[in-house]
Amino acid sequence: MLTFILKRVLEAIPTLLVLITVSFFLMHSAPGSPFSSERSLPPEVLANINAKYHLDEPVLTQYFYYLGGLLQGDLGPSFRYKDFSINELVAQSLPVSAEIGVWSFLVAVVIGVSCGVFAALRQNSWLDYLVMSFANLGIVLPNFVLAPLCILFFSIYMQWLPAGGWNGGAWPYLIMPVIAMSTSYIAQIARITRGSMIETMHSNFIRTARAKGLPKHRIILQHAMRPAMLPVVSYLGPAFVGIITGSVIVDVYFGTGGIGQHFINGALNRDYSMVMGVTILIGTLTITFNAVVDILYAIIDPKIRY
Amino acid sequence: MKKTLLATALITASLGAMQIQAADVPAGVVLADKQELVRGGGAEPATLDPQKVEGTPGSHRTRELFEGLYNLNGNGDLIPGVAESYTVNADNTVYTFKLRDDAKWSNGEPVTAHDFVYGFTRAVDPATASPYAWFIEIPSIANASDIINGKTVPSELGVKALDDYTFEVTLERPVPYFVKMTAHQTMFPAPKAVIEKFGSDWIKPGNMVSNGAYKMDEWVVNEKMVFTRNENYWNNDKTVINQVTFLPIESPSVELTRFQAGEMDISDELPNDHFKQLKRDIPDEVIITPKLGTYYYQFNTTKAPYDDVRVRKALSYGIDRNIITKFVTGTGELPAYSFTPEVVNGFDPATPEYATWTQKDRNEKAKALLAEAGYDSSNPLKFNLLYNTNENHKKIAIAISSMWKKTLGVEVTLENQEWKTYLETKKAQNFEVARAGWIGDYNEASTMLDLLTTPHGNNDGKYSNTDYDKLMSEAKTMADPSVNYNKAEGIAIDQDMAVAPIYQYTIKRLVKSYVGGYQPNPEDNIYTRDMYIIAH
Predict the structure, then answer these.
(1) Residue A216 carries which DSSP code?
(2) Does the beta carbon of A41 lie under 8 angstroms from any beta carbon of chain B?
(3) What is the mean pLDDT of residues B254-276?
(4) B490: closest CA of chain A, how far (Å)
């Protein structure tokens, strides 16, 4: 197992380097610069600004500057928020997205898996359809529809919850973002769980267990759940990264100040270092959680060993 | 002429001295116990450093935190800020400002002429890399251009502290609107000791020292910015609101939800789609004010056939501006026929001839001109109309292109580009006709008209007319430049149709009825220190 982990870490380095390099040059090849604006700057003023941010140097030199900073853990200065470094901005916004993300993840897993298992065990009954219709609401109601609907109902009509803001993550501010964030994941998880559970329940070893007269709860919990969870776990790894790195929809509608908004605005503002910072963050997390999924696989399914 | 100018300056200065900017609570108004205001703040500002700040969201916030020599009231008139009065020499090139001796920074230190010297110098210093360095160049403050170009050192800037409370500015040529420009944040004072101590971190909570009615308390990027009362502000006794929070929300619909949920007292904008409904449901809380800016279509005059005035005129005449403002934008905008909006201070643009015709006449004229230029149904004019991706720009482009199609048979392909790409495309003259808009930096017609001069960095259509350039250059030193401005408008629009003005911008806000002292104005210089919250 230790060699396996070590191997994964070593593999991650070139993957990240490729990611950084491609993103860096792609970002710099986008038309416009961080400092192009409707009010075009006099050339000498622009020259002073470009000099300050090394933008007057060849892109390759800038790339090595960037890598040099990165090695020291410095994601560079923000080109948009001129008084902040990317490290500061990420440190401020990632915990917000992570908090919303972890709660949403827990809610999505608990509700999604329960719905999926419940529906699978009552396959094609009206209860199956009812539960799956409920779970599928998340797909027909994307979060950009759900978020304003929630605000309309909970904040404007009922006045139960604040319409936006974060206030350090106080729970009333957390509820609606978690609802908006988790629903689509609930639907996905429920669908995968249901499919996988149905398949497992029809497999030979379950039939054998039944034939041996094992009680139903033991068949489900001890024998069916573990293999049925495999596809769910492989979905959850990347999903977890997606969910904790925030959503621009949630950030925009609820004014939470998470990292999702930074990523999109970074691209629009040509805030090179912001886009790079978030890309590296998401890249690292994705690689990490894919590795975690592989390890979990090995634990869940003894057939898989490395 | 010079004497008149001097007299005007002195009169303005003394008149101004009688007025002071502060919350003016009418007798009988009962104030709420909690004087805390929440404002929609538009986008998260790039910075709050007065010498570096650009864009409206940043300006709104810096005006709360800092104060310059003068302020401008709702009519665009000068109101004393840190300066009590000023005098100007016979040449109108040396301005001497007398500063009040009770102005203080939020740390209790006095605001002195040295802080202004430092602020002005900092703005042009290449090391600061301020995107607004050019703002010091415009009034031709001595050596500003050379400093920006690196030809001389920042300390050579034509600003001096004669003593702690006397600040002198030397201009290279007389600029009649210079004092008005001091209301702009680029010319605000800067606390040298604090900036030197913290570097670019000086504007962060805990470090920032400011001289306005408020001081920085909390700043969570993309969530909120909270300012509290600056007890050391010279006019603190007259400030009523204790705390102001800015919520950085770019989407007007999201702002609306916060407003409706009672979490915001003044919005930054309002969603066009909800305008009619809001006007019906809460008419008293929908405040529309003309804004110092024009929405227009730009012709690329370097490309045929847009170098042909007949084509430009035909396209401009073919736009029914009343339909656009009534049914497409529909939020109180006024049609624009001249480039300078009507609200500009000290200048009433003369009505161009085509504005007096009926739309039917304009359409007829347009058809004739286009035919003259060689375009008809067998050889229709075809082009791409460029705009930056935005629902409102799209609606306007669809409406105008169908007007052109119907009356002139012109075939327009709509081309939308993401903001920065659109800017690049325009700068490279890689367009035929493009959507554009311009918001004035100071309340004077040259803030608009300069845009159409040959060397202007934002003259993306590359319009060029030597007579026009001459008029605008002369206007810079005239006591009453409005004669030249009218001639310039006549050349650029009536004669050349350099651009097709479409409508005059408005400031659209939702303001809770319990907010008193909200003084909307074309430049959108809104100060929380003028406001108060009525018991409700």
Answers:
(1) H
(2) yes
(3) 94
(4) 25
Residue appearing with tokens 């409904």: B277
Tokens coding A25: 């040059």
> Where in B320-376 does DSSP place strands (E)?
334-335
Counting other chains too, the contacts that A284-289 makes at CB distance below 8 Å and 24 or more residues apart are A284/A12, A284/A16, A285/A241, A285/A244, A285/A245, A286/A238, A286/A241, A287/A8, A287/A12, A287/A15, A287/A16, A288/A12, A289/A237, A289/A238, A289/A240, A289/A241
Gap between the Cα atoms of A79 and A60, Å rounded: 18
Q: Give the global pTM.
A: 0.89
Inter-residue long-range contacts of A154-163, CB under 8 Å, 24+ positions, other chains counted: A155/B257, A155/B261, A156/B257, A156/B260, A156/B261, A159/B261, A159/B262, A162/B261, A162/B263, A163/A254, A163/B257, A163/B258, A163/B260, A163/B261, A163/B263
- In chain A, the residue whose alpha carbon lies closest to the alpha carbon of B260 is A156
CA B496 – CA B464 distance, rounded (Å):
10
- Given a contact cutoff of 8 angstroms between Cβ atoms, the answer to whether B509 and B270 are in contact is yes
Cis peptide before B305 (omega within 30 of 0): yes
Q: How many Cβ atoms from other residues are within 10 Å of residue B153's Cβ?
A: 12
Strand B214-220 to B224-229 pairing: antiparallel
Q: Residue A212 phi/psi, 5° resolution? A: -75, -5
CB contact under 8 A, B423 and A38: yes
Q: Which two tokens stand for residue B313?
A: 């005129």
Q: Do A257 and B221 touch (CB under 8 A)?
A: yes
Task: Give the C-alpha separation, B457 to B15, whole Å.
Answer: 37
ipTM field? 0.89
> ∠ CA(B481), CA(B355), CA(B358), 5° rounding?
170
Q: What does the buried/exposed string (b/e) look like for B358-369 if buried means 16 or more CB atoms within 10 Å of the residue's CB? A: ebeebbebbbeb
Q: Extract the tokens encoding B153.
A: 């050192």
Return d(Cα B211, Cα B197) in angstroms, integer. Answer: 18
The Cα of B273 is separated from the nearest Cα of chain A by a number of Å equal to 15
HSE-CB at B114 with a 13 A cutoff on CA atoms is 9
Chain centroid to Cα B60, Å, comes to 11
Half-sphere exposure of B164 (CA within 13 A, CB side): 9
Q: In residues, how long is chain B?
A: 536
Cα separation of A6 and A1, whole Å?
9
Chain segment B145-173, per-residue pLDDT in tens: 999 989 999 999 999 999 999 999 999 99
CB proximity under 8 Å: A 110-149 to B: 148
Q: What does pLDDT average to over chain A?
A: 90
- Per the structure block, which two tokens stand in for A105? 């993840």
